[in-house]
Amino acid sequence: MAGRDPLLSASDAYPASSGLTGARPCARVSENGRVTSATREPGTPAPAQPSAPSGRGGGSLPPRLIATDLDGTLLRDDQTVSPRTVAALAAAEKAGIEVFFVTGRPARWMDVVSEHVHGHGLAICGNGAAVVDLHGGAGAHRFVKVRELARENALKSVQLLREAAPGTLFAVEQTYGFHQEPAYPKLHLEIPDTLRPAEELLAPEGVAASQPVLKILAHHPDLDPDAFLTLARIAVGGHANVTRSSPSALLELSGPGVSKASTLALCCAERGISHEEVVAFGDMPNDIEMLTWAGRSYAMGNAHPDTLAAATGRTHANNDDGVARVIEDLLAGRV
């Protein structure tokens, strides 16, 4: 892959004057296997009842790190963290268990949990494209690591996906900045910095060319979400890692080998934590690799069937304190 190394410390990605320095070096991890497409919209509750973890021998070692997705997992549908969950997270950290928020959200959307970050203060954002220090509080995050999608790969992926699925619309997510095509739908309360065709945005002399691209968003107004995901993976091939976390036909393209799981593995390796000492929570296809990698993992009661199949256990829905319930049981030695 051309361009800069896909795994950068903040000091590599930014000039010293930016203040974004101090990242520790990381070892490389190999590319995770492809995840399968989801077969049900996230709003449809999973029929299975909560269960203890099973299979893969998970749970043989005491947990040292909890990795949890946010939307549909830790957060309730109203985007809040319940008092019970706040208490459970605090109890875990008091017991010496590190907590990592691992999300597809960009760093600028992390204010919703910034007040609940303690200890190391780190979160994994953009499906593994960035590790962010949230210690500064709302709006004051600092990039610690960046795993960019090289512009050459991003541009090639856009071209291939346009050919395979005419009508696809794109947006470009950067460390600082969000740019989109003029017809890209208003999916969030997001005001784009630039309105240009993706090919112009990703050109060598394009907008904010000096900043890393974290991921490409690809939306199709007509295709079935699962069909779009399958088609995109075939079309894009090894140029990018393709996943989704939305109920709509909205895909997320990251650098090859970049995922929640691979970046979490880097952070754990730095701490001397093995995958067997990790407990992970998630609900969507972009969580599957992380749930498969962790020694113990729980799919939410509202999760997709493929996510349920990937986890070693299942818990209650996000609106019913599913994460908190498992943490309480872990601390009490019940699981």
List the helices and strands and how they pair.
Layout: E1 8-9, H1 10-13, E2 65-68, H2 70-74, H3 83-94, E3 98-102, H4 111-114, E4 122-125, E5 130-133, E6 142-146, H5 151-164, E7 169-174, E8 177-180, E9 194-195, H6 198-201, E10 213-219, H7 225-236, E11 241-243, E12 250-254, H8 260-271, E13 278-282, H9 288-293, E14 296-299, H10 305-310, E15 313-314, H11 322-332
Parallel strand pairs: 2-3, 2-13, 3-4, 8-9, 13-14, 14-15
Antiparallel strand pairs: 1-6, 4-5, 5-6, 7-8, 7-10, 10-12, 11-12
Helix pairs in contact: 3-11, 5-7
Task: Explain the overall architecture.
This protein has 335 residues and is an alpha/beta fold. It folds into two domains: 60-147 and 259-332, HAD superfamily/HAD-like (Rossmann fold), CATH 3.40.50.1000; 151-254, Hypothetical Protein, Haloacid Dehalogenase-like Hydrolase, Chain: A, domain 2. The protein contains eleven helices and 15 strands. The strands form two sheets. The protein has a nine-stranded mixed sheet. The protein has a six-stranded mixed sheet with strand order 9-8-7-10-12-11, covered by helices on one side. α3 packs parallel to α11 (322-332) and α5 (151-164) crosses α7 (225-236). 51% of the residues are buried. One of its GO terms (cellular component) is cytosol. Residues 1-63 are annotated as: Disordered. GO terms for molecular function: magnesium ion binding; phosphatase activity. It comes from Streptomyces seoulensis.
What are its keywords?
Rossmann fold; 335 residues; HAD_sf; Hypothetical Protein, Haloacid Dehalogenase-like Hydrolase, Chain: A, domain 2
